[in-house]
């Protein structure tokens, strides 16, 4: 995307929060019950605050912003806790033709970034991202690019950690990347 002018990034960047909202919508479970189920399944940590407080998604938004060449700082990302969402909010959104998602968003032209619960039209592809899936949409002057994939789980985390270790080892060792 080096030749593109990236104007914004938005998406579902926290699998735990997405799983919790999916449970609330599909099974009409209150937030506390959805958190407990996510913890019992190993989808959520014992201290879920990093996920539902928005820090994890904000950190990922900062990383993505840096990768696309539009750096933002973590302290500049406004966060609204998922703890503010009640089951009645989920039900009302459904009744109105929306779904609630925990959206991380950066608008580089307006110089704004946030992580917050948002009503998404059921016709929007982000509303179809469910369970432990994550999605990110990168908006550029040429068009939008969407990436969707598993966001949580032991295998996914292990792959990410291994990729990071290999990247560091290749940089420190002064080696070129395989195939590059």
Detailed description of the structure:
The chain has 180 residues and is an alpha+beta fold. The chain has one domain: Dihydrodipicolinate Reductase, domain 2. It is 38% helix and 25% strand. The chain contains six helices and six strands, in the order βααααβαββββα. Strands 2-4-3-1-5-6 form a six-stranded mixed β-sheet. Strand 3 and strand 4 (112-121) form a beta hairpin. The radius of gyration is 17 Å and the shape is globular.
Give the helices and strands, then pairings.
Blueprint lengths: L5 E7 L2 H13 L3 H10 L8 H4 L2 H13 L9 E3 L7 H9 L2 E10 L4 E10 L11 E8 L3 E7 L3 H19 L8
Parallel strand pairs: 2-4
Antiparallel strand pairs: 1-3, 1-5, 3-4, 5-6
Helix pairs in contact: 1-2
- Termini separation (Å)? 17 Å
N-to-C series of helices and strands: EHHHHEHEEEEH
**Rough shape?**
globular
The total beta strand count reads 6
CATH topology: Dihydrodipicolinate Reductase, domain 2
Low-confidence stretches: none
The domain tally reads: 1
Q: What is the helix tally?
A: 6
Beta-strand percentage range: 25-35%
Question: What is the CATH C-level name?
Answer: Alpha Beta
**Radius of gyration from the CA trace?**
17 Å
